[in-house]
Q: What sequence folds into this?
């Protein structure tokens, strides 16, 4: 029983990071119908920027802010330059372009920073917390990670629901043609969507890098599982993304604990296939009618 | 007629390859074998993507299936080479049936993602069952040239012959398939799935068939890889391999079998060349080793933005030829999609 | 008709090469005896140069840390070249990137042997990668010296006569660590944490030869692709392991420490030499040591880790080898930190130079193999080499050390053993050699 609780709590930490990646993927998907395979690599690059800023200023929060800002800028720049030409093309083009972006960013990071693992600081202490004499198996930093992702998700929800920018974003995602007719600057909205996704991805990168160390390929497996979480939850549903991330994180922690570390990707694949066979659009997205 | 024409082209190519293999040094022979492996794998992938319109990021996993099948069949049953290749292709094809059926309802990015996860997860089976698959160290495969060729026959030349010969046979078969009724049905599904279904084509079965063909090609390529590397281990079948296959298919020209050759040449020859150039300019070895990686990415993006038809498309335009029906007319696909992205809340096509 | 046309140019070239070589051979044999001019006695050897090659993970998952080894060996070779070379020849060391992908290793090795015509393959890195190359190298009769891996599989003189290991193999290391634990922690509960490949599995084999089965309460393995080792550490804690033996690479040793902190778990850590370099570990942990307000450095978190070492400790500046290698590093490889990987690279480079000098003035490939089969002097290693015609393993022992203030401090004598289940672990009665004043063997 103790182990079970331990595994559950331990899975939440990574699960929240998967949720953040999933959320950023959903943001981009809803806006531009593109699956951004470079999301993890973008998060890695912004984490390196944070690393550089922390190294120069000594302040974690300066680096944190720098990463988020860099994520905004990077997302916007990428959408404007590389993604805009393929937005109205067949989906394969965007797949190839984002994969190319992924490879390029990893090579770039390798050239600038080299391949060695960097020690990335955590925002708060990583020693385990206690409830009285009982060790809980989670740290203050874990609580921060969970809180930060939930705050980001809540912030996005508020943005979409209660601001006019959010309304315009939703209109663009629902029917860009009609939105354009109603005066929405669709291009700007798409850029904004990518910028926000870059921000959330940067958050994920900064939150997870203490646990994975920072190196050019450090976000690869995080991205794959974040993507799995997004697909499981449904690419159209932000709430599904967060739920999918949590469920996946905890479930894979059970697998790693009871069955062994090696079986985690296999179970991830099995979960994905099973869920997609039952509900091809994911667990939480509204079911679509068959199009004829 | 088609078969005769394709066979004639293949024989001409075979003569060229033979001539190269006897006049170039042993390492070039080895590279011929290397390129042949990728030609087969990329040809299968380009047929899947270009002809039937499905995206797979997991063909590296099918290569692993074929490679391990070869190693295990040789180790336990001592099968000869001419039996190993078809058997490995068949085993990979069966795996393709399983994956294709599970993925039959998936479209676009969902399919791409599921196949990506397959590429990530499958190699860990080898380390999970080390007794069967040899774990991280892998299994060894041995191939010797037949005694009839003489004792001094360079082993790499035999490898070049086997692999190149197999690649040519595969290309003949795929070219015939593309020109057949099945090929036309695939292109119909790719261009407009709903219309094809209304016209009476069994969409699901055709999609699975395309998957199976691509998996069989990848499995055969894996068998060829096992033979000329003389070993199989999980480290050779990472996601990087699947991405490299996609890169080769795109750069060469999707849907085009000649493009498979260009793509294979690019991914085998260009990275080492770029690294050599970088090191000779005095860059540190780590930086020099990362430059091809960054360059890969830039090339992928550039090709997709500027030359979507890849090298073969570019060559066709250069010679003033219009692309034949067999190649992917991305331009045609573009004309069908010239509307802004619609959400799935709406029925498609009502704008 | 066309066939002869195509075959002719290369045939002429081949004939020309053969004539040149015969001429060169005649030339050297006529002057052999007293002067012994340097000749092209084997592929890769010219009058002025020895060309050797290697495959290394310069990119990819194994690159961190390991990518420093080849440049460090090359630094020592450049030092040797600046001080007269080997019988007047300069060493040229070409290492290709295989990104830890065995199929790329095969390609690299074919290129080095068939196209670049190297004299030998030196220090090929990685077990699954080098296993892919070893049968080709042996069937082509290319010397395959000082493989950078502790697998016992390189010790196979009957099947792989060209292949030699160098570093302390993992089974011996497991036995040495195991015997220390058996002696100093009797009755305590022991847990294993190991990488799920032959590195970890061979280490565990050695540990099991020494530590009584009843003492081992938990065996947890990890794979380098999954950084979430929380469940594994939780299992070790739940089993009550008071001593954890870790056959892990540095990143996972660091993760083990960090995860233990999160679980408020504080066992005694015994770590394989592979994953215990204090400089690397300190670098990985430094961001976490700054927590809690006090300014401590990363070494605080490595304090007390028990490990083993088969080369002199980096912090011992009075050691003649460290002084020599530091000087070489500062001159030829200054960009890299002077850490365990650099020390390893220079030490194995030294061993190669020893072997080449022993192979003779105009060595053939077989001469190099014969030279190593005849045994090599200990050099910088803390224990002697096992090399003989029937044993191709390298260093046979190590000392136990404890990390204090970011450096390994030796505890007790050097211990030597063999790879058998029953061979005892005994103190080494010889002594360490001092570095030659010239820096050349």
A:
């Amino acid at each position: 029983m103790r182990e079970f609780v331990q595994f559950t709590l331990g899975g939440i930490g990574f699960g929240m990071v998967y949720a953040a990646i999933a959320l950023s993927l959903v943001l981009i998907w809803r806006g531009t119908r593109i699956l951004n395979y470079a999301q993890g690599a973008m998060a890695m690059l912004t984490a390196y920027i944070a690393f550089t800023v922390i190294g120069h200023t000594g302040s974690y929060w300066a680096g944190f802010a720098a990463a988020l800002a860099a994520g905004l800028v990077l997302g916007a720049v990428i959408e404007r330059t590389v993604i805009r030409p393929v937005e109205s093309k067949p989906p394969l083009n965007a797949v190839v372009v984002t994969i190319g972006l992924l490879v390029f960013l990893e090579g770039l990071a390798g050239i600038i920073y080299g391949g060695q693992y960097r020690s990335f600081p955590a925002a708060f202490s990583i020693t385990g917390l206690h409830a009285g004499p009982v060790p809980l198996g989670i740290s203050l930093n874990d609580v921060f990670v969970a809180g930060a992702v939930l705050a980001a998700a809540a912030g996005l929800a508020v943005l979409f629901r209660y601001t006019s920018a959010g309304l315009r974003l939703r209109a663009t995602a629902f029917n860009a043609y009609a939105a354009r007719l109603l005066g929405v600057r669709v291009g700007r909205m798409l850029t904004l969507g990518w910028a926000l996704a870059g921000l959330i991805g940067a958050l994920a990168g900064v939150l997870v890098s203490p646990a994975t160390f920072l190196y050019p390929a450090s976000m690869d497996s995080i991205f794959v599982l974040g993507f799995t979480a997004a697909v499981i939850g449904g690419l159209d549903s932000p709430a599904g993304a967060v739920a999918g991330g949590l469920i996946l994180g905890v479930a894979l922690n059970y697998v790693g604990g009871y069955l062994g570390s090696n079986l985690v990707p296999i179970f991830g694949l099995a979960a994905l296939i099973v869920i997609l066979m039952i509900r091809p659009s994911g667990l939480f997205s509204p079911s679509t009618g068959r199009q004829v | 007629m088609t078969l005769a024409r394709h066979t004639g082209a293949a024989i001409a190519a075979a003569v060229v390859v033979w001539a190269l293999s006897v006049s170039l040094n042993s390492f070039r022979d080895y590279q011929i074998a290397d390129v042949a492996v990728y030609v087969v794998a990329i040809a299968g992938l380009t047929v899947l993507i270009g002809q039937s319109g499905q995206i797979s990021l997991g063909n590296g996993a099918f290569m692993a299936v074929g490679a391990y099948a070869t190693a295990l069949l040789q180790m336990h049953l001592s099968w000869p080479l001419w039996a190993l290749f078809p058997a490995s292709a068949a085993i990979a094809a069966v795996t393709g049936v399983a994956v294709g059926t599970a993925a039959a309802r998936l479209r676009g990015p969902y399919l791409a993602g599921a196949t990506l996860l397959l590429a990530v997860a499958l190699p860990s089976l080898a380390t999970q069952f080390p007794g069967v698959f040899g774990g991280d160290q892998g299994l060894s495969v041995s191939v010797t040239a037949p005694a009839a060729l003489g004792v001094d026959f360079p082993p790499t030349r035999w490898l070049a012959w086997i692999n190149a010969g197999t690649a040519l046979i595969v290309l003949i078969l795929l070219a015939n398939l593309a020109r057949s009724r099945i090929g036309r049905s695939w292109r119909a599904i790719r261009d407009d799935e709903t219309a094809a279904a209304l016209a009476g084509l069994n969409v699901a079965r055709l999609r699975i068939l395309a998957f199976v063909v691509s998996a069989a090609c990848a499995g055969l390529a894996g068998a060829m890889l096992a033979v000329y590397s003389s070993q199989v281990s999980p480290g050779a079948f990472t996601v990087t391999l699947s991405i490299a296959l996609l890169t080769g298919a795109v750069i060469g020209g999707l849907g085009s079998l000649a493009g498979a050759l260009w793509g294979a040449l690019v991914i085998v020859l260009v990275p080492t060349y770029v690294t050599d150039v970088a090191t000779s300019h005095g860059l540190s070895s780590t930086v020099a080793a990362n430059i091809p990686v960054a360059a890969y990415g830039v090339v992928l993006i550039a090709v997709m933005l500027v030359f979507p038809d890849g090298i073969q498309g570019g060559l066709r335009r250069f010679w003033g030829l219009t692309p034949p029906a067999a190649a992917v007319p991305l331009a045609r696909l573009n004309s069908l999609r010239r509307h802004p992205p619609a959400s799935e809340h709406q029925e498609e096509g009502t704008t | 008709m066309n066939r002869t046309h195509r075959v002719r140019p290369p045939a002429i070239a081949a004939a020309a090469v053969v004539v040149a070589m015969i001429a060169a051979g005649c030339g050297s044999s006529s002057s052999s005896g007293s002067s012994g001019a340097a000749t092209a006695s084997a592929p890769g050897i010219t009058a002025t140069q020895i060309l050797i090659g290697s495959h290394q993970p310069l990119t990819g998952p194994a690159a961190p840390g390991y990518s420093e080894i080849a440049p460090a060996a090359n630094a020592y070779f450049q030092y040797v070249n600046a001080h007269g070379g080997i019988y007047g020849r300069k060493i040229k060391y070409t290492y290709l990137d295989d990104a830890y992908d065995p199929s790329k290793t095969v390609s690299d090795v074919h290129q080095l042997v068939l196209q670049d015509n190297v004299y030998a393959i030196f220090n090929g890195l990685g077990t699954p990668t080098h296993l892919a190359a070893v049968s080709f190298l042996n069937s082509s009769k290319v010397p395959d010296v000082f493989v950078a891996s502790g697998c016992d599989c390189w010790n196979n003189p009957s099947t792989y006569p060209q292949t030699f290991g160098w570093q302390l193999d993992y089974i011996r290391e497991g036995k040495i660590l195991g015997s220390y634990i058996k002696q100093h922690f009797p009755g305590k509960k022991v847990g294993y944490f190991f990488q799920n490949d032959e590195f970890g599995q061979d280490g565990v084999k050695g540990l099991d030869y020494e530590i009584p089965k009843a003492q081992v309460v938990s065996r947890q393995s990890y794979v380098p692709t999954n950084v979430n080792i929380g469940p594994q550490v939780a299992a070790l804690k739940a089993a009550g392991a008071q001593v954890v033996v870790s056959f892990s690479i540095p990143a996972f040793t660091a993760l083990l420490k960090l995860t233990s902190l999160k679980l408020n778990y504080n066992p005694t850590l015994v770590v394989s030499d592979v994953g215990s370099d204090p400089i690397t570990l300190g670098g990985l942990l430094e961001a976490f040591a700054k927590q809690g307000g006090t300014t401590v450095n990363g070494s605080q978190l490595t304090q007390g880790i028990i490990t083993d070492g088969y080369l002199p400790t980096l912090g011992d500046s009075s050691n003649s080898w460290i002084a020599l290698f530091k000087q070489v590093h500062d001159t030829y490889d200054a960009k890299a930190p002077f850490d365990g990987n650099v020390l390893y690279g220079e030490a194995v480079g030294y061993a190669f130079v020893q072997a080449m000098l022993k192979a003779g003035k105009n060595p053939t490939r077989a001469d190099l193999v014969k030279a190593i089969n005849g045994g090599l002097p200990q050099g910088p290693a803390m224990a002697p080499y096992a090399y003989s015609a029937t044993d191709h393993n390298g260093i046979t022992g190590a000392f136990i050390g404890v990390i204090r203030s970011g450096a390994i401090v030796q505890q007790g004598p050097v211990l030597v053993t063999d790879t058998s289940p029953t061979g005892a672990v005994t103190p080494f009665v010889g002594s360490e050699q001092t570095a030659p004043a010239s820096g050349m063997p």
Notes: Chain C touches chain B at residues 6-7, 9-10, 58-59, 63, 67, 70-71, 95, 97, 99-104, 106-107, 110-111, 114-115, 127-129, 131-132, 135-136, 153, 196-198, 223, 225, 335 (CB under 8 Å). The first helix of chain C runs from residue 2 to 31.
